[in-house]
């Protein structure tokens, strides 16, 4: 008989021997461009806090106001008694921001993919997913009853082949990340939507890393390509990265919201957001529209940091967004570089197999609007020294 103790021990041993065991680093200060990690003062290149909203006073003030007025918690599942007026108002604000017929907010980006893919797709439907799509899409598709196919990363000929080889009278859905989280490249939505339309398919974009980053005032990848009014495009994403808080959303056709309210299981069976979260989120959408300098600084910093890394001889792997990978090859080299960078006061996380291909281990840097030129220069100096010491760049 397997005891719980034996099972837990076996799991930890297996993870450690496969080099997959993780112990999260701990921030001793708020999530900002400069923070403290495990007791060290650092320039933070590890967060998804693209606009620097996670600790922004404008968000915190509204969170506090909503907390005082509306209470600490929603008190019930949204479909039972947990829908407060502020939930509905924020969803209307989000639909307006996204230029879509409707929007619904769920607990997280992860549960949004599970809720939407798990409830929308039926037997006889076809869903085709880019091979590099996020884990929450993969798990969402596990819940879907449709026929599931994969197309090669951003390979339009392969997408077309899969659509041709799998005719169906059911719903066809092409699923892609808007911005890919490991490489920082942008999905060619102009081509994806055009091919999907040829086959009568709907395009589903997970814009976790594009919302607040691409498109006018951060309206996202779908807006960047001009498809925001299209009723054959579904946008999902997170409210935890650029928007600095927590949550997920689905936005699109006017009826999408009502169907998801009635069918998406994470929405139906799990309590909605506390008022402070809703307050901070509504402030985040206001702030990005009132003050364009957040987007301007994010992109100035992105262009500067990427260009300087390349000038030093680092391979940033074709990244087009603030997600800036630096390729080290072997996982051991990436992890060693990350450790040395931390000693130099730079927090940037190493990623190896199975998160990324075996020979493409990397450090993933994320530039934000909050970084100063001084922060970025500090990080670049550390990169130069560590890169030279490890023989990744010459000199
Ligand atoms: N989709 C993508 C592409 C992501 O990168 C993430 C975050 N890691 C998620 C979904 C999940 O979002 P959340 O953290 O809100 O659950």
Automatic annotation (TrEMBL):
<dbReference type="InterPro" id="IPR050087">
    <property type="entry name" value="AON_synthase_class-II"/>
</dbReference>
<keyword id="KW-0012">Acyltransferase</keyword>
<dbReference type="InterPro" id="IPR004839">
    <property type="entry name" value="Aminotransferase_I/II_large"/>
</dbReference>
<dbReference type="GO" id="GO:0030170">
    <property type="term" value="F:pyridoxal phosphate binding"/>
</dbReference>
<dbReference type="InterPro" id="IPR015422">
    <property type="entry name" value="PyrdxlP-dep_Trfase_small"/>
</dbReference>
<dbReference type="Pfam" id="PF00155">
    <property type="entry name" value="Aminotran_1_2"/>
</dbReference>
<dbReference type="InterPro" id="IPR010962">
    <property type="entry name" value="AONS_Archaea/Firmicutes"/>
</dbReference>
<dbReference type="InterPro" id="IPR001917">
    <property type="entry name" value="Aminotrans_II_pyridoxalP_BS"/>
</dbReference>
<dbReference type="GO" id="GO:0008890">
    <property type="term" value="F:glycine C-acetyltransferase activity"/>
</dbReference>
<comment type="similarity">
    <text>Belongs to the class-II pyridoxal-phosphate-dependent aminotransferase family.</text>
</comment>
<feature type="domain" description="Aminotransferase class I/classII large">
    <location>
        <begin position="41"/>
        <end position="381"/>
    </location>
</feature>
<comment type="subunit">
    <text>Homodimer.</text>
</comment>
<dbReference type="InterPro" id="IPR015421">
    <property type="entry name" value="PyrdxlP-dep_Trfase_major"/>
</dbReference>
<protein>
    <submittedName>
        <fullName>Pyridoxal phosphate-dependent acyltransferase</fullName>
        <ecNumber>2.3.1.29</ecNumber>
    </submittedName>
</protein>
<dbReference type="InterPro" id="IPR015424">
    <property type="entry name" value="PyrdxlP-dep_Trfase"/>
</dbReference>
<keyword id="KW-0808">Transferase</keyword>
<keyword id="KW-0663">Pyridoxal phosphate</keyword>
